[in-house]
Every structure is written in structure tokens, then in C-alpha cells.
Amino acid sequence: MSESVVIFGVGKGFGFSIAKKFGEAGKTPILVARNADQLKQFVKDLSNDGIIKADFIVADVTDPTQVTNVFSKVKMAYGIPETMVYNVGDKTLDTPFSLPLDQIKGIYDTNVFGAITTTRQFVGLSDDSKLNRNILITGGGAAFHPTKDNATLAATKAALSDYAFSLHDAVEDDNIYVGLITIQGLSGSSEEMQPDNVAKVYVKAAQDRSEREIKYPAKPSDF
What we know:
Elements: E1 4-8, H1 14-24, E2 28-33, H2 36-47, E3 55-58, H3 64-78, E4 83-86, H4 101-123, E5 133-140, H5 151-171, E6 176-183, H6 195-208, E7 213-216
Parallel strand pairs: 1-2, 1-4, 2-3, 4-5, 5-6, 6-7
């Protein structure tokens, strides 16, 4: 097994910082998102100092075939990855009546079914229970703070939390740690919420492999 980390949903905020902090911890981050140009630049930025070796794969997590391709490429180039991070999220705000049903379905596909697709495939990469592997899922405080203005976001984050808890119990005996990182603030809104500080929580969770859910920051804000 390689010490690679497959990160689904790498953007300018938390995703890039998560990749950087895992790279600084000696892991090989594999960045996955839909924007090829942005991913190329991220890998270039990570590799500038010569310390972090990073790679990227373009894929849409709502397409199971593309997810299969991601893991096939990673396994071929790096071996079975040690950790996967699901950091994908559509944060569209809506009322219970403001969005058409097809758009709501698209948000569920991104926020919930994408997590199911990626984690199932990650778990299926190996049946060796002696391997220490990790799944880290980015949750959101909206799951516990539904309002009339965040109807679909809150519902999908609640569903994602329930899925993460079920998955944790289902694979625990297979030596796969599942940790839900529930983000309870807005990026950059405080020192705690600076992306690099948030990213450290993911690295520590993968090292400790203990808590089923980590709420960060401990005191909710911005809700």
C-alpha cells in the first residue's frame, strides 16, 4: 500500500490546503476535480519547493465510471491509497420551494451519492483487513442548523452525516477508519477557519484514527 491520499473536491479553499498539509506530512496527494487547468496549477504550486510530490486526475464524482477510472489510475501508479478525502459539496442556498426538482437532484448527486460512490469503490480496492486505511468526509454544520434559506444544503448534509456514521460502523472491523469532519464555520471567517488550520484537522484525524465525528471549530459560528 502506498502513502497516497486521494482528495475529491480540490478547489482554492479547503481542498488545496488539505492536499498541502498531507503533502507536508510526507504523503502523496492526488487531487481530483473537474477543472483540469486549476488542478495543473495546484500541482505546480505544491511542487514548487520540491518537498511535496503531487498528482491530479480530472473527474466528476457524480459519474461512477469516472470514479472507477480515478482509482484505477491511482492504484496503477501508486498502489492502493492509504486515505481518501471526500471534500465535494454543492453549497447552493434555497428555500423549500425555490429550486426545480432536477437541480435539487443534482445537489443530492454531488453531496450524497458522490460520497457513496467514491467510498464504496475505495473500500473495494482491497480485502486485506491488515491495511490501515482512512476515509475522511467533509460534513457541514448546516446539517444541525436547517433554516428556510438552506433547505437542500441542510438536508443533504444531514444525509451525508448519517451515511458517514453508518459507514464507520460497517467497515470498522476491516481496519478502515471513517471520520466525519463537520465544518461549523465559513472559510476565512476567523483564524480557526483559515484553510490551512482547517486542513490540519484532516491530517490529525488520519493519524489518530479514533473519533467518528470531529466538529470544527468546536463552537459553531456563521449559522
